[in-house]
Design goal:
- By secondary structure, this protein is α+β, with helices and mostly antiparallel strands.
- It contains 9 helices and 26 strands.
- It folds into 2 domains: about 300 residues, no CATH class; about 90 residues, Elongation Factor Tu (Ef-tu), domain 3.
- Helices cover about 25% and strands about 35% of the residues.
- Helix 1 packs across helix 2.
- The relative contact order is 0.16.
Length: about 400
């Protein structure tokens, strides 16, 4: 690998990183690509801020990197070598020396066919010839407003037959209006990307949040599951009952309140957040994960978010060394809580020190489950024996 001295030289020895805060798509793409002084790029991941025209970014990428496959999505924020940002076009380049991939686009995504989607994943995996001694994992980015991620990742999990899957739902700031997936030189709505990646690097999966369940339960007594909308909780209007349980007025409900007072579901011995998106239809609640009548939710209580972030990212490789870099998918509601608590600088310092690169999502995927308010990712270490996913 031939890496030139640039703004992010030294962030990673294994991947190249480019970022731009330019407000015009062509200029931002040109500036970010110019920082990728790497020979033989296998593919790039691209995370687009809500202030840039994603279609023009795709056109500029096709001109700047005509022979390089580009994947990614629009985002609700970016994690660059500087930490959290919301106006940076981020490009991460993966070299052929250490990576191979195969990909497919699920489009249209809605409605998901479980059988067909599982078969697509299985076929992709079987046709991608395995490299002896290399590690294999899968990445997925999905339309964050499709309301299909729960079914999608369950189908992927079935078809991948043991290949670990990690991913995030595309975002668009806090607008919650439209999100897009990059594949084949263009951005697509109502779509999901599946990549199977091989690497000779040591890889360790990450998944964590900072919440514990309380004793306060919320039973969904009237819902519209296909739209992830809950009309009643505990027999009362959903938004009003939630506000009562968290101790605020109905009019005070906001993304910040939802971020600090999540609701959780239990899956065997594990708890997952099913985040509330917003108040809709007067006193109903729209969720970012699957919901159904009779579902028992539990109000969550937060632990120290910065301490959890630092502790969980302090992973080590076989030789005890820190990761070369971490590819991270971090829920936008976690970031909102960090902003609300006034600790953005401290959180960015941790992300910077831990060499995290990635984006803020509308939801996260890991282990066949779609969840919210979670950090999901992969830590990469230099090639060695003794650790695998």
């Amino acid at each position: 690998m031939n890496r030139a001295e640039g703004p992010f030289h030294g962030v990673s020895q294994m991947v190249a990183v480019g970022a731009s805060r330019a407000r015009e798509a062509e200029a931002a793409t040109t500036e970010a690509v110019a920082q990728l002084d790497m020979e033989a790029i296998c593919f790039v991941l691209v995370f687009v801020p809500d202030g840039l025209d994603h279609a023009r970014v795709a056109e500029a990428l096709n001109r700047a990197l005509p022979q390089t496959p580009a994947f990614g999505c629009t985002s609700a924020g970016q994690i660059t070598p500087e930490g959290y940002e919301d106006d940076a076009l981020l490009i991460v380049a993966f070299p052929r020396e250490h990576f191979r991939f195969s990909s497919t686009l699920i489009h249209p995504l809605t409605p998901v066919s479980i059988k067909d989607t599982a078969l697509r994943a299985k076929t992709l995996s079987e046709r991608f010839r395995k490299t002896a001694g290399w590690n294999r994992f899968a990445l997925t980015f999905a339309d964050g407003l499709s309301k299909q991620e729960d079914i999608l990742v369950a189908a992927f999990e079935t078809g991948l037959e043991g290949v670990p899957l990690f991913g995030g739902s595309a975002g668009h700031g806090l607008a919650f209006d439209a999100t897009f997936i990059l594949h084949g030189g263009a951005f697509h709505s109502n779509a999901a990307l599946l990549m199977i990646v091989e690497t000779d690097l040591v890889v360790k999966g990450l998944k964590f949040d900072h919440f514990m369940p309380t004793e306060r339960q919320l039973v969904v007594t009237d819902a519209r599951p296909e739209d992830r909308v809950v009309h009643e909780i505990n027999g009362s209007p959903a938004a009003r009952e939630y506000a009562r349980l968290v101790g605020c007025d109905l009019a005070e409900l906001s993304p910040q309140v939802f971020a600090e007072n999540p609701v959780m579901v239990r899956n065997y011995d594990t708890w997952h957040v099913r985040a509330i998106q917003q108040v809709v239809e007067g006193e109903s609640l729209a969720f970012l994960s699957a919901i159904e009548n009779g579902l028992v939710l539990t109000l969550g209580r937060g632990k120290a978010i910065l301490e959890t972030l630092e502790t969980e990212l302090s992973v080590t490789g076989p030789d005890g060394a820190a990761p070369d870099f971490v590819l991270g998918f971090d829920c936008v509601l976690r970031r909102l809580e960090i902003e609300q608590n006034g600790v953005m600088d401290s959180a960015s310092r941790i992300l910077r020190d831990k060499r995290v690169l990635g984006f803020n999502t509308y939801g996260e995927q890991c282990g066949g489950i779609h969840m919210n308010q979670t950090f999901v990712g992969l830590a990469f270490f230099p090639p060695a024996r003794g650790m695998a996913l």
